[in-house]
C-alpha cells in the first residue's frame, strides 16, 4: 500500500498526515484528524452527508481522494462556527426547525454555505436544486429550505454578502 | 387566541439542536473506544442452502486480523419477537442473500474487509421460494424446515412457511354481499421499501472486567436490545448495559438489533472492544425493510354508496424471518376495515416466509399498505357509482361513539373535520375536468402504541431540572415535547430542563421510541413525576415555614405560604443539605383499550389505542407521454389531540409525507431470485429536495383522554396516506389506475397504453 505524505489545511489549520494513497478526504477527516462532524454513510457520493467545502466548492468528501486536497483549503462543519457563536446558517437551522435526527445537517449546511457564497439571493427553487445532492429522510426538506432562505437574508443584511 | 399554556403549544427549538448543527453530537458511527477493533460481516451469496464448511485459516493469518466469529462461538439459540426463528450467524442453513454467516475482526476496517475475502465458505444450494404465492403452495420448499422446533407466542397459528394465520370476523359477510347492489374485488400489491435513515446501524461492544456486556449503539430501543442480547448470550438482562449514542434516524428500522449482537460476539472472541457499522450494501440487503403485501379486497355496497361488507385475503411477505411481520398481518386488518363503519367483515391474513431479506417495523408498519388498498378501492367504487369520492367517504366514515371493527368504542373522532378541511384546502369543490391534472384524497386512523414509561425528574442544586428517561431521541424532537410537558406542569422554562437519556443501567425503564408514543408516554410519566415532586416540595416547604404541607401553594418556579416563598433553587438547596436531594420517579402506562376479543382470531395486535384521525389531499399533473408526476400542492390535516410543539409536528408531517411519496412513486428494493438488484443509493431512489413538494399542514386538536394535555400520537400517521392519495389523483388526472406500488412513470405509461388499447 503506497503511503502519501500530505500537508492539508483544514479549517485554517495545517496538518501533516501520512495515509494510504487511496484514502478519501472523508477517511482523513474522520479517522486521522478525528473531525467526526463530517458524517459517513453511502460512500458513493449519493447521500451527501459527507459534504465539505474545498476551495469554496461543496464536495462529497467520500469520493475525493485526500491526496487531491494537498495545498487546498478544506472547511468542515467544525470550521464554520466563530468561537462560541453559531454561523447564521447554523442559527437559522435551529430556529426554523430544520434539524431532526441531524445526521445530514453538517453536509446540508456545508452545501448551503458554498451555495450562498456564490448565490447570495437565491429563490426557493434554486435552494432546492442546490441541496438536491444531500438526502434528508426526516424533514421533507421544507424547513431546511426555510432555514437557508432565512440565512441568506441575514447574511445579506449583515453585509457579509454583496 | 390566548393560550392557557406557557410552554405547551409553542414552537421552541429542540433542546439538542446546537450539538447537531455544530457537528459536536456524537452519533453511533462517530463513537470510538480505546483499544477498539473493527468488524465486518461475511454474508451469504445464495438465497437458500446448507453451509458445508467454513475455512478461516487463511483469513486468520492475514495482517491485523484478531478473530473470525461464526455461529459456533454463540450459545445456540434462536430469538425473535413473535416466533424465535432468528440466529446471529447462520449455523447450518442460509435463508437469504446477505444473511450473516461469519464476521472478521481486525485492527482496521480495511484489514477486516480484505480478510472477509479470504474466508472460504462452501455451500450446497437448495431451492428457495421468492413470493408468498409460491411459499403457501402445498409442497413448497420450506424456508425453515425445523419451524416446529421454534418457540413462539401462544397466539400464533403456524404451518410451514406460514407464521400466523389470523382473522377478524364480524356479522354475516356472505349474506351482506348477496344483499349488496354492487360488489367490487381488487388486488393490490405493495413494495419493499427501506426506512432510509441516513446514519447506518452502528454499535460498539466490549466485555468489562466483571464479564458484563457493555454496548454503545444507535438503537431505538435500549431496553429491548438489553433483553435480546441477554437472551442470545445467556446472561441476565442486568449483565448487559446498553448506552445510546445520538441517533441518525430510525423510522422503526432500528427497533430490533442492528449490529449490536455481531459486535458483542466479536468482542467476546477478540477480547477487545469491537465496532460494527453497516455498509450501504448491507443496509439494502440485510436491514429491516417494510413488508410487501398482497391484498385481495372485496367490498359490497348499496347503490347510494353505503358499505355493507368487506372481505379480504392478505399475504404478508416477511422475508426469511417472521420478525414484526406477524404484527403487520394483524394490524393491517384494523387498517382494512377503517376508518369506516362496516357491519360485516371477514378479513384473513397470513404472514409468510420467503427466501428474502427479513423485514421489520418501518414507520406505521401496516399503514401505507392497508391504506393504499382501502382508499384506492374507495375511489374506484365512487367512480363506478358516480358519487363524489369525498361524499362516498363522508357517507361511511366513523363518527363519535361508533364502534371500530374490533368492537372498541371510538372517542374524540375528528375524521369528518379532517376530510372537510383537507378538501377545502386543496380546492376539492373547484376541481375542473382537465386532462392530465387531478386531485386525490384519502383518510385513515392510527394507533398510539402503549407500553410503560418511567422517568426520574431531578432538581439540580441551581434549580435546573434533569429529565432522565430510558427513551431514545431518534430525531423527532419528541423528548423536547416531553420536556415541554414537564416545564409546563412544573412551572419552569423549557430552557431550565436538561434531558439525560439512554443508559439501561441508570435510566428508568421505557418501552421506547416506537409507535408514535414518545411524547405521549414520556410526557405522561413527566406529569406523574411533577405530582410527586410537588408533594415533596410542599413537605420541604412546610418544614421550613412550620406549616402543614397541604397549606403550601405551588407557584410558577417554586412554592409559597402566605407571603413567604421558596424558589426551586432554594428548595433544591434544602433538599441537598437535608435529604440527599430531590428526585421523583414518574411512571405511566396507558389504560387498556376495551374491545371485543370474540371478533379477532390469532391476532397479536387487536386494538387502536388513543386513535388519531387524518386526511391528505393532493393536486398533481401527469405527463401522459412520459408518465412524469408533478405535485402542485399537498395538504395534510392531522388530529394531534394537542399540538405540544407545532413546528416539530409539522416536521413530522412534512418528513412523513415525503417518505410516503418515496413509497408511492420511486422506492423499491428489487429482487431477482432473492438477489437485490439495487443494493445502493444510486438505484434505490429516495426523494431529493427536487422531488419533494411544499406541504401545507393543518393541525386539528381534538383532545384524547389519555395523552398529556390531550395529545395523541403524531409521528407515524403522515407516512400512511401518500400512496393512496397520489394513486387517486393520478386516476383522476389520466384515468390510469395503478394497483401496485411504486407507481413509476413506466407503470403509468403502460397503464395508459392498456386503457387506450381497450378503448379502441
Explain the layout of strands and helices.
The complex is a heterodimer of chains A (162) and B (760).
Chain A: E1 3-10, E2 13-20, H1 25-32, E3 51-54, E4 57-60, E5 73-75, H2 88-95, H3 105-118, H4 124-130, H5 142-157
Parallel strand pairs in A: 1-5
Antiparallel strand pairs in A: 1-2, 3-4, 3-5
Helix pairs in contact in A: 2-5
Chain B: H1 17-22, E1 37-43, E2 49-55, H2 57-60, E3 65-70, E4 93-94, E5 100-106, H3 109-116, E6 120-125, H4 132-135, E7 162-170, H5 173-179, E8 182-189, E9 202-207, E10 213-217, H6 222-232, E11 240-244, H7 260-270, E12 274-277, H8 280-286, E13 293-301, E14 307-319, H9 325-337, E15 344-353, H10 367-385, H11 389-394, H12 415-426, E16 437-446, E17 453-459, E18 465-469, H13 478-490, E19 497-501, H14 518-545, E20 553-555, E21 558-561, E22 564-567, H15 568-579, E23 583-588, E24 600-601, E25 612-622, E26 629-639, H16 646-666, E27 671-672, E28 675-676, E29 695-700, H17 722-734, H18 745-759
Parallel strand pairs in B: 1-12, 10-11, 14-15, 18-19, 26-29
Antiparallel strand pairs in B: 1-5, 2-4, 2-6, 3-5, 7-15, 7-24, 8-13, 9-10, 9-12, 13-14, 16-25, 17-18, 17-23, 20-21, 21-22, 25-26, 27-28
Your description of this structure?
The complex is a heterodimer of chains A (162) and B (760). Chain A is an alpha+beta fold. Chain A folds into 2 domains: 3-79, Ubiquitin-like (UB roll) (Roll); 88-157, [2Fe-2S]-binding domain (DNA polymerase, domain 1, Orthogonal Bundle), CATH 1.10.150.120. Chain A is built from 5 helices and 5 strands; from the N terminus they run ββαβββαααα. Chain A has helices at 25-32, 88-95, 105-118, 124-130, 142-157, and strands spanning 3-10, 13-20, 51-54, 57-60, 73-75. In chain A, strands 2-1-5-3-4 form a 5-stranded mixed sheet, with helices on both faces. In chain A, a hairpin with a 2-residue loop joins β1 and β2. In chain A, α2 (88-95) crosses α5 (142-157). The relative contact order of chain A is 0.15. Chain B is of the alpha+beta class. Chain B has 3 domains: 37-126 and 198-249 and 254-286, Aldehyde Oxidoreductase, domain 3, CATH 3.90.1170; 293-449 and 596-759, Aldehyde oxidase/xanthine dehydrogenase, molybdopterin binding domain (Aldehyde Oxidoreductase, domain 4, 2-Layer Sandwich), CATH 3.30.365; 451-588, Aldehyde Oxidoreductase, domain 4 (2-Layer Sandwich), CATH 3.30.365. Chain B is built from 18 helices and 29 strands. Chain B has a 7-stranded mixed sheet with strand order 3-5-1-12-9-10-11. In chain B, strands 8-13-14-15-7-24 form a 6-stranded mixed sheet, sandwiched between helices. A 4-stranded mixed sheet of chain B has the order 16-25-26-29, with helices on both faces. In chain B, a hairpin with a 2-residue loop joins β20 and β21 (558-561). Chain B starts with 16 loop residues before the first helix and ends with a helix. The chains are: A alpha+beta (162), B alpha+beta (760). At the A-B interface, α2, α3, α4 and α5 of A face α1 and α16 of B.
Amino acid at each position: 500500500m503506497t503511503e502519501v505524505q500530505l500537508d492539508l489545511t483544514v479549517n485554517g489549520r495545517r496538518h501533516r498526515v501520512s495515509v494510504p494513497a487511496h484514502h478519501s478526504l472523508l477517511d482523513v477527516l474522520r479517522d486521522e484528524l478525528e473531525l467526526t462532524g463530517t458524517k459517513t454513510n453511502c460512500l458513493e457520493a449519493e447521500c451527501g452527508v459527507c459534504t465539505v467545502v474545498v476551495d469554496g466548492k461543496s464536495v462529497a468528501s467520500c469520493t475525493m481522494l485526500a491526496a487531491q486536497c494537498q495545498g487546498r483549503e478544506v472547511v468542515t462543519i467544525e470550521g464554520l462556527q466563530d468561537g462560541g457563536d453559531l454561523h447564521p446558517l447554523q442559527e437559522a437551522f435551529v430556529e426554523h426547525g430544520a434539524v431532526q435526527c441531524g445526521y445530514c445537517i453538517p453536509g446540508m449546511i456545508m452545501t448551503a454555505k458554498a451555495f450562498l457564497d456564490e448565490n447570495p439571493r437565491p429563490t426557493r427553487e434554486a435552494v432546492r436544486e442546490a441541496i438536491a445532492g444531500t438526502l434528508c429522510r426526516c424533514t421533507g426538506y421544507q424547513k431546511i429550505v426555510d432555514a437557508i432562505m432565512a440565512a441568506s437574508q441575514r447574511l445579506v443584511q449583515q453585509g457579509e454578502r454583496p | 387566541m390566548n393560550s392557557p399554556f406557557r410552554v405547551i403549544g409553542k414552537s421552541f427549538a429542540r433542546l439538542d439542536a446546537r450539538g447537531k448543527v455544530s457537528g459536536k453530537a456524537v452519533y453511533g458511527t462517530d463513537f470510538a473506544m480505546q483499544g477498539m477493533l473493527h468488524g465486518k460481516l461475511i454474508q451469504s451469496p445464495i438465497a437458500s442452502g446448507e453451509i458445508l464448511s467454513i475455512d478461516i485459516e487463511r483469513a486468520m493469518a492475514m495482517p491485523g486480523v484478531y478473530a473470525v466469529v461464526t455461529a459456533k462461538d454463540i450459545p445456540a439459540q434462536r430469538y425473535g419477537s413473535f416466533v424465535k426463528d432468528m440466529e446471529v450467524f447462520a449455523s447450518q442453513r442460509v435463508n437469504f442473500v446477505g444473511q450473516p454467516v461469519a464476521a472478521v475482526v481486525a485492527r482496521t476496517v480495511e484489514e477486516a474487509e480484505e480478510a472477509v475475502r479470504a474466508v472460504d465458505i462452501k455451500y450446497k444450494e437448495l431451492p428457495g421460494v421468492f413470493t408468498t404465492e409460491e411459499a403457501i403452495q402445498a409442497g413448497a420448499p420450506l424456508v425453515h424446515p425445523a419451524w416446529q422446533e421454534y418457540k413462539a407466542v401462544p397466539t400464533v397459528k403456524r404451518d410451514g412457511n406460514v407464521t400466523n394465520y389470523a382473522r377478524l370476523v364480524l356479522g354475516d359477510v356472505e349474506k351482506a354481499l348477496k344483499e349488496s347492489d354492487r360488489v367490487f374485488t381488487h388486488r393490490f400489491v405493495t413494495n419493499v421499501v427501506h426506512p432510509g435513515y441516513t446514519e447506518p446501524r452502528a454499535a460498539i461492544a466490549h466485555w468489562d472486567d466483571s464479564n458484563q456486556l457493555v454496548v454503545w449503539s444507535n438503537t431505538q430501543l435500549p431496553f429491548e436490545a438489553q433483553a435480546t442480547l441477554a437472551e442470545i448470550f445467556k446472561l441476565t438482562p442486568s449483565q448487559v448495559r446498553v448506552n445510546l449514542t445520538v441517533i441518525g434516524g430510525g423510522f422503526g428500522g432500528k427497533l430490533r438489533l442492528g449490529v449490536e449482537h455481531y459486535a458483542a460476539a466479536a468482542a467476546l472472541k477478540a477480547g477487545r472492544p469491537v465496532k460494527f457499522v453497516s455498509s450501504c450494501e448491507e443496509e439494502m440487503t440485510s436491514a429491516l425493510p417494510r413488508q410487501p403485501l398482497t391484498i385481495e379486497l372485496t367490498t359490497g355496497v348499496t347503490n347510494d354508496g353505503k358499505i355493507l361488507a368487506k372481505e379480504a385475503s392478505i399475504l404478508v411477505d416477511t422475508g426469511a424471518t417472521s420478525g414484526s411481520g406477524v404484527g403487520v398481518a394483524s394490524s393491517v386488518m384494523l387498517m382494512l376495515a377503517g376508518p369506516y363503519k362496516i357491519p360485516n367483515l371477514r378479513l384473513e391474513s397470513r404472514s409468510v416466509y420467503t427466501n428474502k431479506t427479513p423485514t421489520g417495523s418501518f414507520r406505521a408498519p401496516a399503514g401505507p399498505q392497508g391504506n393504499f388498498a382501502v382508499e384506492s378501492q374507495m375511489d374506484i367504487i365512487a367512480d363506478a357509482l358516480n358519487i363524489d369520492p369525498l361524499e362516498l367517504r363522508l357517507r361511511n366514515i366513523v363518527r363519535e361513539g361508533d364502534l371500530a371493527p374490533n368492537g372498541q368504542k371510538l372517542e374524540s373522532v375528528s375524521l369528518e373535520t379532517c376530510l372537510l378541511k383537507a378538501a377545502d384546502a386543496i380546492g376539492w369543490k373547484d376541481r375542473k375536468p382537465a386532462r392530465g391534472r387531478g386531485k386525490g384524497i384519502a383518510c385513515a386512523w392510527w394507533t398510539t402504541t402503549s407500553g410503560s414509561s418511567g422517568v426520574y425528574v431531578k432538581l439540580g442544586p441551581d434549580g435546573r431540572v434533569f429529565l432522565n428517561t430510558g427513551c431514545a431521541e431518534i430525531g423527532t424532537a419528541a423528548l423536547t415535547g416531553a420536556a415541554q410537558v414537564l416545564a409546563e406542569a412544573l412551572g419552569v422554562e423549557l430552557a431550565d430542563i436538561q434531558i439525560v437519556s439512554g443508559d439501561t443501567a441508570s435510566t428508568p425503564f421505557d418501552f421506547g421510541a416506537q409507535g408514535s408514543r414518545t411524547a405521549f408516554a414520556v410526557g405522561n410519566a413527566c406529569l406523574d413525576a411533577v405530582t410527586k415532586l410537588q408533594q415533596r416540595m410542599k413537605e420541604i416547604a412546610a418544614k421550613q415555614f412550620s406549616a402543614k404541607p397541604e397549606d403550601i401553594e405551588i407557584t410558577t418556579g417554586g412554592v409559597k405560604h402566605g407571603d413567604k416563598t421558596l424558589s426551586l433553587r432554594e428548595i433544591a438547596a434544602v433538599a441537598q443539605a437535608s435529604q440527599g436531594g430531590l428526585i421523583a420517579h414518574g411512571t405511566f402506562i396507558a389504560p387498556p383499550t376495551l374491545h371485543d376479543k370474540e371478533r379477532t382470531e390469532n391476532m397479536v395486535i387487536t386494538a387502536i389505542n388513543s386513535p388519531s384521525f387524518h386526511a391528505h389531499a393532493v393536486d398533481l399533473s401527469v405527463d401522459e407521454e412520459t408518465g412524469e408526476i408533478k405535485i402542485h400542492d399537498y395538504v395534510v390535516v392531522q388530529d394531534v389531540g394537542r399540538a405540544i410543539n407545532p413546528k416539530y409536528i409539522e416536521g413530522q408531517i412534512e418528513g412523513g409525507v415525503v417518505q410516503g411519496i418515496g413509497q408511492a412513486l420511486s422506492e423499491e428494493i428489487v429482487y431477482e431470485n432473492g438477489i437485490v438488484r439495487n443494493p445502493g443509493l444510486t438505484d434505490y431512489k429516495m426523494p431529493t429536495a427536487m422531488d419533494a413538494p411544499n406541504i401545507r399542514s393543518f393541525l386539528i386538536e381534538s383532545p384524547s383522554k389519555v395523552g398529556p394535555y390531550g395529545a395523541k400520537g403524531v409521528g407515524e400517521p403522515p407516512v400512511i396516506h401518500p400512496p393512496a392519495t397520489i394513486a387517486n389523483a393520478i386516476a383522476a388526472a389520466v384515468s390510469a389506475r395503478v394497483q401496485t406500488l411504486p407507481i413509476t412513470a413506466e407503470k403509468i405509461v403502460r397503464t395508459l397504453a392498456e386503457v387506450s388499447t381497450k378503448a379502441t
